[in-house]
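User: Working on a comparison across species. This one is Vesicular integral-membrane protein VIP36 from Chanos chanos. Can you predict its structure so I can line it up against the others?
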Amino acid sequence: MALDRHPTVLRTCLITEIVNKMKCCISFWTFLLLCLLQFSAVTSDITDGNAEHLKREHSLIKPYQGVGTGQSSQWDFWGSTLVTSQYVRLTSDERSKQGSIWNTVPCFLKDWEMHVQFKVHGAGKKNLHGDGFAIWYTKERLHPGPVFGNQDHFVGLAVFVDTFRNDLHGMDRSFPYISAMVNNGTLPYDHGKDGRSTELGGCSVEIRNKDHDTYLAIRYSKGRLTIMVDVDDKNEWKECIDIGGVRLPTGYYFGASAATGDLSDNHDIISMKMYQLMVEHTPEEDNVDWTKIEPSVSLLRSPKDNIDDPTGNFRSTPLTGWKVFLLLLCALLGIVVCAVVGAVVFQKRQERNKRFY
Ligand SMILES: [Ca+2]
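Assistant: Here's the predicted structure for Vesicular integral-membrane protein VIP36 from Chanos chanos:
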């Protein structure tokens, strides 16, 4: 009978039961964690270019027929841009050049992914080349200016592939450096600091004078901006930037621009392929007039990183919802493991005490 059991035995049974429950609990959480990791791996996969959803009106594809000619053309170009049958050269490897190419059709897709094949090459040795190129999704098009050949105080999204280090204090990063910036027209791009004070995130990538094809992908879906690169000839995307809380309207234009200064490079765009992402939206989201959205970003603030940042913009990658959840999960797992270890030690001690009596 249970009541006749020696108290120590009863306690040992209880502890064994607790330990078993905790083991079960750990298995459950481990399973959940694995599921989450699997889910995040799936969601972070970039589309492999499903041809069904390729939007030709927003894509620039060899041999670039109809580029810049007549009323029906879907792409305009400007400045030093040279269109051949094999590439669109925004600048040649010469000093003080600026060129751009712009989609003439505004994009009304809510969720999209742009794959850009590019080639940056030139005679300049290490650190003696510049300045880089930018991919744009902006309200206005064909407005030349000082930001990689496009206007400053732009409205929309810019992805910069900056090949020349202007900021000699910023030695914590190597160049070329890819970064993203969202602007509602109020912020200037600071060339002297390589745009550091307004960037949303970035990564260093070796992209120059490669014999193989080099790509970058920009995905915008459900307020999330993801930038990936495929530059190592491995045919796989590597994450560069992934941030949530990004608001971009529909109805803006895609474009690419490049500039050279005292130093130069050939900045070639081989293709820009736009894919529509099939994503469901809630009725509330669908009822909003997406063309009226003002470009903005809401990030978790990181005072440490912005101590000397007068613009109030934030360059650190924020903790997104599921990352916070994973962190909490890990903390919970840690507590459970500690509790189990404690319980096991306690159980062993009780058994040893029992032997002594
Ligand atoms: Ca620069």
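For your comparison, note: The two ends are 22 Å apart (CA to CA).

User: Helpful, thanks.
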